[in-house]
Amino acid sequence: MALTHNLGFPRIGVKRELKKALEAYWAGQSTEAQLLETGRQLREQHWAIQQAAGNAFVTVGDFAWYDHILEWSTTLGIVPPRFRHPRNAPVDLDTLFRMARGRAPVGEPAAACEMTKWFDTNYHYIVPELAADQTFFLARASLFDQVAEAQALGHKVKPVIPGLLTYLRLSKGESFSSAEDERKLALVPQLVQVYRQVLARLAEQGVQWVQVDEPALVLDLPAAWQEAYRQVYAELATTPVSILLATYFGDVADNTDLLASLPVGGVHFDLVRGPQQLARVLPAWPADRVLSAGVISGRDVWRTDLDQAAALLAPVQEQLGERLWLAPASSLLHVPVDLAEETQLDDEIKSWLSFAVQKLDELRLLAATLNGTVSAAQDEALARQRIALAERKVSQRIHNPAVAARVAGEASVARERSPFAERISKQREALGLPDFPTTTIGSFPQTPEIRKIRRDWKAGTLSDAKYEEAIRDEIREVVKFQEEAGLDVLVHGEPERNDMVEYFGELLAGFAFTQNGWVQSYGSRCVKPPIIYGDVARLIPMTVEWTAFAQSLTDKPMKGMLTGPVTVLQWSFVREDQPRQATCLQLALALRDEVQDLEKAGIRVIQIDEPAFREGLPLRKADWQAYLDWAVDCFRVSTSGVQDTTQIHTHMCYSEFNDIIESIAAMDADVITIETSRSNMELLEAFERFNYPNDIGPGVYDIHSPNVPDREWMIQLMNKAASRLDRKQLWVNPDCGLKTRQWPETRSALIEMVHAAQALRAAV
Ligand code: GLN
Ligand code: ZN
User: What does the entry list as the binding residues for L-methionine (predicted)?
Assistant: First the structure.
């Protein structure tokens, strides 16, 4: 009989209980005891769900107060010195929070640890900081306490911990650069000892299986790291527990042989992202080893074709019998908790969806199918699932013949514009721009009043007419201020947008929105990604009215603001019944129409934001170029239908450009604005080295801080930029949108910025 288990459950709570409890505690509105109690209740609920779904164990160790990697760092006693934590003392919760956020109810504030994206997900982990003389010791007992907690509730427990080498690979060394990554391996012998202690202690608690997460095995690994895997797992093999080594988010590819050679109790494979690896690993699978098959996606919200999964696994079960385990492909951390909470979702669309709770049900149905134990009720559930999936395939909600026809003709859609040099001189003349033109990235402060206006309108308590007038008033203010401040290319301020993806999704066909489909992004912050379920089509112009109204208020050029196809794709749950690039192309064609309508309405500058362009990169370098090619192509499909005199901007933040600069240049935007102020213009190096030809606006101040930037400092930054690039190429703008800022500092900052640009122009 194949058993089922789970790699991890979303910790935030179906109603975001953990978020609320954390924020109340941080704000001093509740006690630590109250916070701890919320955590305990959530774990109890989540274990009960796993038990009810028939999982052979409940997973313990997936819960985290902020992030599971930070839980592990504190468990291993890794606290950077600036937090002034006494060496060798146990780490408390407030210290953990100070590491995560810089502050906590108790303890001195200090600069928070860096946060970065977990593989190719939108989840962020806290980057471990290792000192060269780092020592490790068991500094927190929360894992062991939670194991005991689950056992006391009568559960059989499978703890999960981050694998030693994945943990190390994702950490940063204080005294060496990332290029000197190999030096981290010097810490392995010491770390192995602590891991041995952890495993021994779990064994004492009666634990049999420990899930050790090593997703780094789906990355490109240098030889030294592959060798380290051999050493580490040879040493851990002698502890009295069985290790289930979990890989996910991709195919282990060239690490297949390495993995087969490791003396572990079992290995988990992601057969959703890497179904082809099964044929590679199965023939030589050792007789005594468990193979955990991840066949239910932990990264999307779609129901699984269980017949197909059963067909894939039937021969595996034949070969392995009880040594075949079934699981979701990865942790369910990246999907919403429970579809049952969605009472307003269309029934047909709902029948295609599966959130964490439903995914565990699907797993149980799969196990019953393979084990030949399908009950009457399960048989009915399987039949329902079959019907839903068959209907989905032919549903008119998904398949739009007009979109199909348009996509079929995509080859004839222009991707080329005239050479940049020709375009830019026509644009400069038409727009009448000075050197060092000034602009902003789009949004202006989103005041509580603006949010309330949008909320009331959506709730139906504010009439369309009143809503429109209120938004127009806001646009008037924003435009008036920009004129007074002397900015060159103005924006309307985006007051009608709650979110840069959601706004467009709501106006496009093919998108659905949930009420409670929250997914943790970092700490207490959650996002509710839209679901792209069908062919994407533009139903009506989405931004033309607001932008044209804003333009009517001024003689200066008004910049139209759109979210780019790659970013919409990246921040949504995307349909899995066609390649991502096919969905992206549909988005690009819809945006192309919007770009052209803006131009027709007299808008001469149009910005297409692509902040998520870089984060779409695949995990393996070998797959990068294919992605970059279609991502660039989609951007060009959106932007290439306009006249030479129409200026196309793009904006990217949180990006490294060094290794993708060629593709950035291939996007061929007339102007790119980027985030550079925090790195002191270092990011410009890539543009300099590449001899980047088009215009560029390196952000001159950090919009994440309320501080008003100093004029001289901005001038000095721009001079630094001018020493690397031609001054004719340069624009002056903030780092990113201003929506999170307040008006007073925004006013002062932009006025200072315009003065800085004036000084730069004067100093020829
Ligand atoms: N135009 C958007 C804004 O200004 C861009 C946001 C972003 O880059 N994340 O808010
Ligand atoms: Zn930005």
Answer: 441-443, 494, 609
Ligand 1, pocket residues at CB < 6 Å: 441-443, 494, 500, 561, 609, 611, 651, 653, 736-737, 739
Contact 335, 299 (CB under 8 A): yes
The architecture (CATH level 2) of 3-394 comes to Alpha-Beta Barrel (3.20)
**Predicted pLDDT of residue 82:** 94
For the residues 641-647, what does the mean pLDDT come to? 97
Q: Which is the closest atom of ligand 1 to the Cα of 607? A: 1
* Contact between 431 and 438 (Cβ < 8 Å): no
Q: pLDDT above 70 covers what percent of the chain?
A: 99
- Check residue 176 and give its pLDDT: 65
Residue bearing the CA closest to ligand 1, atom 10 = 737
Q: Given pLDDT bands bounded at 50, 70 and 90, which one contains residue 182?
A: confident
Q: Where residue 179 falls among pLDDT bands split at 50, 70, 90? A: low
Q: Report yes or no: 329 and 299 within 8 Å, Cβ to Cβ.
A: yes
Q: Give per-residue pLDDT as tens, 682-699.
A: 889 999 999 999 999 999
Which of 122, 439, 443 is the best mutation target for the ligand 1 pocket, counting ligand atoms within 8 Å of the beta carbon and taking the most?
A: 443
Q: Do 577 and 535 contact (CB within 8 A), yes or no? A: no
- Residue 131 CB neighbours (<10 A): 14
List, for residues 480-502, the tens digit of each pLDDT value. 999 999 999 999 999 999 999 99
Nearest by Cα to 440 from 503, 493, 499: 493
Domain layout of the chain by residue ranges: 3-394, 424-762
Buried b (16+ CB within 10 A) or exposed e, 267-297: bbbbbbbbbebbebbeeebeeebbbbbbbbb
User: Relative to the CA of 651, which ligand 1 atom is closest?
Assistant: 8
Distance in Å, CA 441 to ligand 2 centroid: 7
Could you tell me the CA-to-CA distances from 476 to 483, 492, 541, 546, 752 in Å, in that order?
Answer: 11, 8, 21, 11, 22
Evaluate whether 3-394 and 424-762 have a shared fold.
yes
Q: Which of 736, 738, 741, 750 to mutate to test the pocket of ligand 1 (most atoms within 8 A of CB)?
A: 736
Atom of ligand 1 lying closest to residue 441 CA: 4
User: pLDDT at position 682, please?
Assistant: 85
Among protein residues, the one with the nearest Cα to ligand 1's atom 1 is: 442
CB-based contacts of 650: which residues, under 8 Å, 6+ apart?
A: 564, 607, 608, 609, 610, 635, 667, 669, 671, 672, 673
Q: Does 424-762 carry CATH code 3.40.1280.10?
A: no
CA of 438 to the centre of ligand 2 (A): 16
Q: What is the largest CA-CA distance in the chain?
A: 83
Annotated binding-site residue? 584 = no
β-partners of residue 296 are 328
Is 521 assigned a ligand-binding role in the annotation? no
Cα–Cα nearest to 536, from 511, 566, 562, 563: 511
pLDDT at 681: 84
